[in-house]
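Bug report

Summary: C-alpha cells for Putative beta-eliminating lyase-like protein differ between web form and batch submission.
Environment: batch mode, default settings.
Steps: 1) Submit the sequence below via batch. 2) Compare with the web form result.

Sequence submitted:
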Amino acid sequence: MSGESGFKNKSISEIVKEIYENIDGMTMSGKKDGNSNIGGFIATRHKEWYDKASIVNIIYEGYVTYGGMTGRDMGAMAQGLNESMDFEYLKSRCKQVEYLANKLDKYGVPFQRPFGEHALFIDAKKILGHIPIDDLIAQTLAIEIYLEGGVGSVEIGTLLADRDPITQEN
C-alpha cells in the first residue's frame, strides 16, 4: 500500500478525520466500508442537501424521525467503523483484492484497471457480450458467480443505472 507522503506518519483515523473535515457531503454503506451487517448513512454540512436527501430517503427508509436502523445495528456499525480504522485490517482487505486481481489476470477475466483497494469491477459486457442489454448482463454475471462459487457480488451496471426516464430503455 502506498499513499501521499504528507500522511505517511498519520493513523488511519487521523486521515479519515482530515478527509471528513474537507467534504461537503458523503454516503457510506455499512456492509462494505463499515464492516457491519446492515445500514449506512448520508452526511452533509448543508441544510438544503439534507432536506432534499430526507425527501428521497422516505422512499427507502421512512421519515427521518422514525425510519432507519435499530440501536443494535447502529452499535454494530459503530464497532465496525472502529475496527475498519485498523491498518492491518485494511492491509488485509487490500491484499484480498490484489489476490483476486492476480487470479482473474491468470484466467484472462477482464476487469477495470486500476483496481481499487475496496473492490474489483469485472467487465461483464466483455464476458457476456452475447447477452442482450435488456437481459441485464452484469446482474446475470453476479448471479452466475454466486451459483458457481458461492461468492456474493453486486452489479454496477444496467440495473443499478436504472432506465432512461424518456425511452424507458436500459
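Above is the batch result. After comparison, the two runs are identical; trailing whitespace caused the diff. The CA atoms of residues 88 and 145 lie 28 Å apart. The chain has a mean pLDDT of 85.
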